[in-house]
């Protein structure tokens, strides 16, 4: 017999209510026990159990139950449509809808809502237009769809056509403008409603308060405050809590929020929890604890907000104590505690708590899977997803997206494909969140073909989808296509700009990254901290101090210069540009982390200021900051470039003895460099043989470089042989060995090396130098003939040679790798890229102005001597950053002390 023919009985109402309550709590097994124990079931009981399954992400179980009563009634079908909609299974929802023998407006609305919830506004509108009859809910559902798909023009057009509007209609439009960050239009919509004589109600006021919180206009807030009193809502705790939310949006308004909170005539559990959460998130955890202690109710929401705040600030043990004091924690509290453990990287503790949960909902499973994936335990995330599936539950959208993230982490392509199939089975393969996660997963697994297919087939593409696709193209070295996609995004956000700017920066196209940034500012988009950090890195790599200063100015205007990440990037940029402003930034910082100290130690090392690097390290120790592996790389570099052998040995020993840090290949390379530069080439070689780990190319290269400096042919030959086998395509190794041979006049050996290079197809990287003059970057390559002023540059060089030779300069022809006469060797040396750059600097800049040059390779010995003489004869300060370190030339001397 169809369920709609079952007799109604008031005797089942209590059990049905209990089933609904247990379903709301996620306690499905208990709900089913109540259902099965009922002597008979009316349609209300059936629908209560079906609804419980649907609301807990188990629409298939609900469908199975509905089938056992011949499909139920209209209400049953509508519940199933809504259940499949929440699970993202649009196709299954449509199958249920199409199979309903009778459909009323509520059922049509449920199906339209399904399309809206899953981002398919096109099909939603098609179904809406086909409806035999519509009520105001139908129109409001479509309004919601347009708002959520960020089509506010379409929403406004539909709003204007509505035959009837209710308070929900106005609220949806106001909320839609807020959602799309058009807060001024949200306020205008509220004013229009008010001008039409419609008195505001609680939902309107709550929505418009959200808009006001983003407008940052306290005058408007005060006017709303007045309106609240006039409308008789001054004791409405929901509106009061919404106003409190406005005050708590900014850390700078927390004191005002506290004052408002203290003056509230009525408070409920959410008021208390809102204040506790705001203070916690604002870094005022002690104040949050004080408010919590005054809470007379200490409700589960308040306790949960408090334990969440404690967990977020690292007081996880206090959070656990509070959790254990909750008499009957609900699922939200259990989930909050598990999330707290995951946030503090205490995965085992989260796992233990998850296993003890008396009942779990889809958020519990999703939180654990996400926690595993985010804490580097991706395999366990995937195992848990399998357990979820074995329990007869299809994963939620959150669980699926976290699982795709886990596959991305470990590049598990085959597992990802299986999960993709599961998403298809769950009917959510077209959901935008799932598609975006799939794009990211396939991109990380280097399967760009699948990425294209997914993106092309997406029925709804939001900004996140475009950003994911651009990132995928960038990861697969398809920068031009990524740029084309970026240029065609219907709506860009700050992530879009960050992605494309970062892509050009990583591709060593810094100038293009800067141009895109300028376009971003012209479009009145404000950059975030990552963009500023990327551009500061570009400025540092190019040695473009003026660019770095401009970015610094932008950071100051936006109030981002004091943030740790940006401040650390500023220090690094100024060091790379040879500017003392790095120290000004460092001295002005109120907060410093290990990256700050490491950046300044490394900066001093680049400039060959070993003693200063050690002094900073001592300050760091006094400040109580523990060094890490990077700290010691910086210290050892500093010692190496300053000839501080004993100090370097002491730091190398201190790593393991004082701090329990195991030396890595980078540290061994620094020690080889330190010993070799100091002249102990044999000791450096023996150090390599005594290493407990296999040496890499960097270590052998450090030894070869020492052999070049000290002209040790035999050890150099052995080091080069190792390098030729490890990295046969690295031209620098061949060049260094050739330099060693040529310095000893071993031209036959030089010829053999050049022949070997030719056989291996290895080409020497051309020397390149560049400098910034009046906001324009000028670059030179060795033997350059392309620069627009090359004839004037050559003439200046010839004049310089005459002056310098009169002052005692003698060209060092050992750096020419050819057995040719001295005049040809001298001519070859004249046109090295750094000499061309110096000549150009002297030619176009006023007398006495410092000259700064960047170079891709190490400066050669002859150029080093040449520039020392230039600084003496011309009385110019000349700074050169080569591929290894800074050289500051002053009055005929170099800061490196000829030790580089």
TrEMBL record:
The entry's keywords: Repeat, Transit peptide
Gene3D superfamilies xrefs: Tetratricopeptide repeat domain
First and last residues of every PPR repeat: 42-76, 104-134, 135-169, 268-302, 330-364, 462-492, 493-527, 593-627, 628-663
Domain DYW: 808-900
Pfam family, one: DYW_deaminase
Protein name: DYW domain-containing protein
